[in-house]
Fold:
Amino acid sequence: MFKINLARLVLKEEVSSLVEEIEKLTKASVLIQDANRRAIKGEVPKEPAGKYPVMLNGKIIGWVCGSRNASVIASYLSQLAALEVQKRSLGRETLEKYKELTLLYDLSEKLSERLSPGEVAQLVIDETRKIIKGDDISVTLVNEETGLLDIFTAGGREPDPAADLGPLGFFVENVINTGKAEIVNDVLSDPRYGSSGGNINSLICSPLKVKDRVVGAINIASKKPVSYSAEDLKLLSALAFQAAADIENARLYNSLKETFLTTVLTLAETIEKRDPYTWGHTQRVTNYSAAIGKTLGLSKLEIERLALAAMLHDIGKIGIRDSILLKKGKLTTEEFEEVKMHTIYAEEILEHIKHFKDIVPAVKHHHERYDGTGYPERLRGENINVMARIISIADAFDAMTTDRPYRKRLLLDSALYELKNNAGTQFDPVMVEAFFSAYDSRNILPKVD
Amino acid sequence: MPSILIADDELHIRLLLEQTLEELEEEGVRLLFAADGHTTLEIIKKERPELVLLDVMMPVMSGFEVCHHIKNELQMDDVYIIMLTAKGQEFDKRRGKEAGADIYMTKPFNPDEILKKARDILGM
Structure:
């Protein structure tokens, strides 16, 4: 129940002015006191005074002292107090609902970034912890391939193979099979557990449902004897509803992304196959670029785009004739001019595809040089797209460490020396430094036969 | 007695904020209310509240105008202003800063965050 502070109520402008109005009309003043007889408003009346209690739910919360009007004012204040309680309880309920809403809003906000199902599960665990008490919160997802249950516990993005629901497994499986949420407040005495209840006292478990399909469950267990309420379950169900949709979305998105990347890689490798000398080049340049990007502290999303650009860096070679692309001897000036065109062809191919638009500069400019003497646009320094500057090093390093039709590969040390030696002329020195730091921490592993 | 002004034209937001700050009221903070920009300005001038929770979209005078008036023309730097506006109006953030708002929060606001911030500002 809410405590009502009579003083605060009486001192509200609309209340005090009404009391004064009554005093004026009845030509008599009153003294209003709190339950402990401390004065709130007015002075001790001169006329012989009666005392009338201000009541709330059978309790005295204050007094009105005065003559003929005092009882009216006392009952008016009693009514106001009752209304105030009603308003407060509505207010509190509304606030609880609002908090619930903010919670779901926060969750969907965070989820608008592209995440893996495991990362979504982590978020769900974190958000659940904020609203419901429990020692052990886990998300169980039905693995679509194996049909088994993957268990995600706090702090892990991948399913925890060591996690074991133990005696709770029965309940979680039951929730997943029936699609119905469950609260068990006294686990030990539940006959379904028998004697294997372990040290868990209470649990609450809600299925994760997408339409009518159960994709998993959120499970909260408490070692301390707590009493989970229907209100807790309602809150958890609201969260589960949102979480299930997001986990499903993450799954779909990730499988779509996988399909997409496989398609792109296949495409890149098809082009690569025309030139047997460059076998594996695309994959290695992609790996090296990603390693450099990671060292530079790029975000997960940026590294994904960088890897995609690296995968497609030579896509424009599709437009170069075999007689030039596969030529064993030195290229003539005209032939070299044609080879240079692969950066322009790449732009022409990629710019039409919405999903590739942002990586066009990275692909187009991977042959620019830091000193401004590269191609196709002779861009200089930081004017060159940052991803292009990364791919440029990865590309050069792989070219130097593999055999080409017109030359044998360099020794590893010579290749490394070349990179260092060309920092500031061909390459961005910052990127070269990042390359070496990735190399030293064995994140760049060159091809060795 | 320290005071906080809740300025929003929507009754339900005023009620929510009142409920959010209820425990401060128990501790002696006076809560004031205004439902339009003009009233907001009058109350600030008269009561000089320590904190104003100021909605951007209000009739008569917008939150920006009120804020600009308070901070620039009246130079009332001791009045801490939290601007509140609907999510997705990110460009408002810059206008809010220009108008002199101390901080900026988006709706749906997090009640616990507002309460904590109010406690910090009032030193309670």
User: Anything to note?
Assistant: The first strand of chain A starts at residue 31 and ends at 34. The CA atoms of residues 272 and 279 of chain A lie 6 Å apart. Chain A has 15 helices and nine strands.
